[in-house]
Write a structure and sequence with these properties.
The protein contains six helices and seven strands; from the N terminus they run βαβαββαββαβαα. By secondary structure, it is α/β, with parallel strands linked by helices. The protein has a single domain, classed as Maf protein.
Length: 192
């Protein structure tokens, strides 16, 4: 089976496709990820996943392209990737003992056709003191993650509860990705 193209440089998205043994190759998109003035979180992630898919499908016009974008939202405020360790600690302090949303938009494109889906999960953080947060940030793990944490990594002890799709919080809601790929003639099979 011809590999799909993953329009992402995310190691987590690669890991999830590898876990399911879906053949793929990577073309990382070059897309401006700044939030537009007045842009709502759901519109933001939807726009970015679409832009990533469109940017890469033009480079691989004969392939099925899978793209995604994830953001963390608290009090209607988008928490992207932290700009510094200090910014990461500040983000994590905002999340402590509270519930926030993680939005992941998935887009699949091929030959001028594009389909999208949006996953919304709710994540509740345990209360943690500043020292714990600083120690976590010092590991370096949160510095390239939306919301400054990795639920599947060293950030796991910070989490109390997840309501929704764990894989969506990681960055690729598998059920949505598989449903979209099936619409493009690529249904998931356990055997290859």
């Amino acid at each position: 089976m011809k590999p799909i193209v993953l329009a992402s440089g995310s190691p987590r998205r690669k890991q999830l496709l590898e876990m399911l043994r879906i053949p793929f190759r990577v073309i990382a998109p070059d897309v401006d990820e700044h939030v537009l003035p007045g842009e709502k979180p759901d519109a933001y992630v939807t726009r970015l996943s679409r832009a990533k898919a469109q940017a890469v499908v033009s480079l691989a016009p004969q392939d099925i392209v899978l793209a995604a974008d994830t953001t963390v939202v608290i009090e209607h405020s988008i928490l992207g990737k932290p700009e510094s360790p200090k910014d990461a600690v500040h983000m994590l302090e905002r999340l402590q003992g509270r519930t926030h949303e993680v939005l992941t938009s998935v887009a699949v494109a091929e030959n001028g056709r594009l389909e999208q889906a949006l996953d919304v999960s709710r994540v509740t953080f345990r209360p943690n003191d500043r020292r714990t947060l600083e120690e976590y940030v010092a590991t370096g793990e949160p510095l390239d993650k939306a919301g400054a944490y990795a639920i599947q990594g060293l950030g796991a002890p910070l989490i109390e509860r997840v309501e929704g799709d764990f894989f969506g919080v990681m960055g690729l809601p598998l059920r949505l990705a598989l449903d979209l790929l099936a619409k493009f003639g690529r249904p998931y099979r356990f055997t290859r």
